[in-house]
Amino acid sequence: MSTEVEIQHNRGLYLPELELWLDAERKVDLSVISHAHADHIVNHRKIIATPETAKLFALRKGNVETEALEYGKPLKLRGATIELFPAGHILGSSQVLIEYRGTKIVYTGDLKLRESLTCPPAEIKECDILIMESTYGLPEYVFPETAETHQKIVDWVKDTRDRGEVPIVMAYSLGKAQETMKLLGDAGFDLSVHKAIYEIAEIYQEFGVKFGNYDQWRPGSAGLGVVLVPPHLSRWKPLDAIKKRKKLLLTGWALNRSTMYRYDADEVLPLSDHADFTELMSYAKKAKPRKIYVVHGFLEFVDYLEEEGFDAEPLGEEAGFVKLHRKKK
Ligand SMILES: [Zn+2]
Asked: Pairing with 18, which of 4, 28, 126, 265 sits 20 to 30 Å away (CA)?
């Protein structure tokens, strides 16, 4: 017989009985870091994270006291057991299983169920309470098959080069850029990548991800063959020195074509490291929780979960949601 465990959301998840934060967004004493994306990393007094996330965290934020916890290794903390397991999002990304007073709580963090070239696939564990992100939690967000998107990316790069133009691929510096490096490297393309992408790729290599031929791009040069930069540099002056160029943006928001114009891209393809609507739903069904809390993303996702018979509610309604109007209530 389990009793209810209190879960709060106030710029991060908080379990008061354990004095434990999950992905706290401001400095706290102790926080689990699900993965090293910028919105999740703050210089806490101490963090619990996978060795990969700890290394990426240190690159981005400097060293902090760290409890490096590998996937599947339980950690005892204040009467609870904490275990990290793969989220399939980026290198080192983890979901968190907390067992406390007979209740199994799973926090997905950012998640993807589709295959990844650079990190192990997400696992799904049955639990009592599921706390899930819902970045693409609307039915219109269903991504094409990964293999199809990969093929389109390779074809676009090949066609661009065949026309004598330099392909510039824009992908977020942590995660998507390395996924793209793996894809294009394995397809035989030589890559020159922006410094931020390069430094992170070195850490991926340390943890066993093998890339093809690449170097650090020297601004102004045409690079080895394909140039890879983060999307926020789409209008970066040094790119203008590459006279014949075409730009491809890789983002899940490719499903909205307007994204392409915002980033001054010639093409956009839906490479995402997040679960789409179908994956989120199938995850919930397999985890069989009696209660679901939704954090971040679309508030309407809660209604879709309820339609499937789940007891679901948003957590942290003030901050993390894209839309604040619910469909039915
Ligand atoms: Zn993320």
From this structure: 126
